[in-house]
Amino acid sequence: MKLDRIANIAVILVAIAFIGATIYDRVLPRSRKPTPPMSLMGKTLPLPGSATRGASATLVLFVSPACHFCTESMPFYGRLAALRPSGSKSFRLLAATAAGSVSDEEGRQYMASHGVAVDEVAQVSFPDVGIVATPTLALLDSSGRVAHSWTGKLSDELENDVIKSIRELCADCKGE
User: Fold this and answer.
1) DSSP letter at 145?
2) For 122, what's the count of Cα atoms within 13 Å in the CB-facing half-sphere?
């Protein structure tokens, strides 16, 4: 009898823990700490042919209009766009949306509505590229390989890391 009571209590506690973990995982907001998608490092991304042509650095912003972290990050992306030297093609900024989610024109309007001037908007199959979350930023070198990547809403420290990494690849990029 006492053993049955202990077993029943144990089953109830396990059920409560499982339900609590499920609610916590699905209802409460996830951590805003970005996790770098290591699988992108060194990859050549399948982007439109003109995306990296002639640039010593290309920053690809993998975004979604439905992603509130993307929208919250737009002021930072505007500052990144301002790094581009006037008339120079040494640093390109590309916005990539998930294939089939929005048209290129809708993607362009989304970026423009937040004051972010990009060189190009393209639709990309996120799973084929290895993108698991938005926003993801991928900094490509002159050969089109991913030199650095960041995922999520970035802290001030990581935003500074993005700017520093761009300047390492693009000698004539402006200061903020």
Assistant:
1) B
2) 20
What is the reported pTM?
0.75
**Inter-residue contact 158 to 135 (CB < 8 Å):** no
Sheet containing strand 146-151, strands side by side? 120-124, 91-98, 57-62, 136-140, 146-151
Question: What local confidence, expressed as pLDDT, does residue 30 receive?
Answer: 52
Q: Return the pLDDT at 142.
A: 85
CA angle (75 as vertex; 122, 130 as ends), nearest 5? 40
Residue indicated by tokens 């001037």: 117
| Whole-number Å distance between alpha carbons of 77 and 121 | 14
Interatomic CA distance for residues 104 and 108, integer angstroms: 6
